[in-house]
Write a structure and sequence with these properties.
Length: 379
């Protein structure tokens, strides 16, 4: 063995939410060392990785070690470079590429096969609860973010306390909507406190464009296991159409340190607010806006819907209303990722309008995710 192969090379530390990542070459073996302070989360990740083995392509977990104040996990490091190595990078382009089309075909095929193979009706106590049930439970994110809060709808734009929004009709692009903040939170808590079984399957649970590698592989496993299928759908679609291209690069820029091309495309994915008019006499709030989504993200959403969501729904919910089924999961993604009170007033207003659309009687997922404008990829 040469001296060069015995050399240890250490890359730059990166932060992702509460975790740290360190690229390391040890005796010629590329590793990615993950440090997490939450030992229970580390245990969940180790279990989740084991659950996915044999079903999805995942990097090898070579070792894990308890350390003071946390846990270290040593993964096989997949090939990557600046602006390369993730689904995100296939979305940070001007046009829909054949590479993206093939990737979405491979992704949806893999998901369709595993979901149909492992689908089962399960009580909520048996599914991964972190992203939905735990966040709606007492002491979860809905409580942490919003219990007792009464922030303005949009400071300097709509200076109405959020709890009074139910007293007004919200007219979004000409569509009148009645939206009650307190009632919405109450309904979400009640929904995720229910004991009714849900259709669940073995998935990674948090399928974002930074948790899906290119070539296709699945990363990040603390939510991996038996997940609600509807929650999986809502998670991917909301991330592709709102979080990944607009909100996360705006409020968590550090997450894209190795993928700086992301920032050049934020404007193409940021909804455009055209006009806001509050009529206190008529108790109406008029908001005119345009949801924007770049062509690659529209194509990814369309492929996911056409090649995965619709075929699975046809088998599991042949007589179901997908809008009704997806509604609580999507509302939770809008409310329980970022605290709306912490966002800029314009972003908060846009998200409240989107939430009102989701909870309204005319909610149509296909229109909501703007997939009707995207090219439909052949199965």
């Amino acid at each position: 063995m040469t001296a060069d192969r015995r050399r240890w090379r250490i890359g730059a530390i990166r932060r992702a939410t509460r975790n740290l990542f360190l690229p390391l070459d040890a005796n010629g073996h590329p590793l990615l060392i993950k440090y997490t302070r939450d030992r229970e989360e580390a245990r969940q990740e180790i279990r989740g990785h084991a659950r996915l083995l044999g079903h999805y392509r995942v990097p090898a977990l070579h070792a894990h070690l308890r350390v003071p104040r946390g846990h270290l996990l040593a993964y096989e490091r997949l090939p990557s470079a600046p602006d390369r190595g993730l689904l995100l990078d296939l979305l940070n382009t001007e046009t829909v590429t054949a590479e993206l089309q093939q990737y979405m075909d491979d992704l949806t095929t893999a998901y369709r096969n595993v979901i149909l193979e492992t689908a089962q009706e399960a009580p909520p106590t048996d599914v991964v609860r972190k992203l939905y049930w735990d966040r709606a439970a007492a002491g979860g994110r809905l409580d942490t973010y919003y219990r007792g809060a009464n922030f303005p709808v949009a400071d300097g734009i709509v200076d109405l306390p959020i709890t009074r929004l139910a007293e007004y009709v919200l007219v979004a692009n000409g569509q009148p909507l009645v939206f009650g903040w307190t009632a919405t939170l109450r309904r979400l808590r009640a929904h995720f406190q229910g004991a009714k079984s849900v259709w669940a399957a073995l998935t990674q649970g948090d399928p974002t464009d930074v948790n899906l590698a290119h070539p296709l592989a699945w990363l990040d496993y603390d939510t991996a296991g038996l997940n609600s299928i509807l929650g999986e759908f809502a998670n991917f679609l909301w991330y592709i159409t709102a979080l990944g291209g607009w909100l996360v690069p705006t409020y968590n820029r550090a997450a894209f340190a190795d993928h700086p091309a992301t920032f050049a495309h934020v404007e193409a994915n940021w909804p455009r607010l055209h006009r806001v008019y509050v009529n206190h006499s008529a108790r109406t709030i008029h908001v005119d806006y345009t949801p924007q989504l770049c062509a690659p993200r529209r194509a990814a959403a369309a492929a996911y819907w056409n090649l995965l969501v619709q075929p699975i729904a046809d088998k599991l919910w042949p007589d179901g209303n997908l809008a009704e089924l997806l509604r609580p999961y999507l509302a939770m993604r809008i409310l329980a990722v970022y605290n709306l009170a912490d966002l800029a007033p314009v972003d908060r207003l846009l998200l409240l309008v989107r939430l009102a659309e989701v909870t309204g009687p005319t909610f149509d997922p296909v229109t909501f995710f703007t997939t009707e404008e995207a090219p439909c990829l052949a199965p």
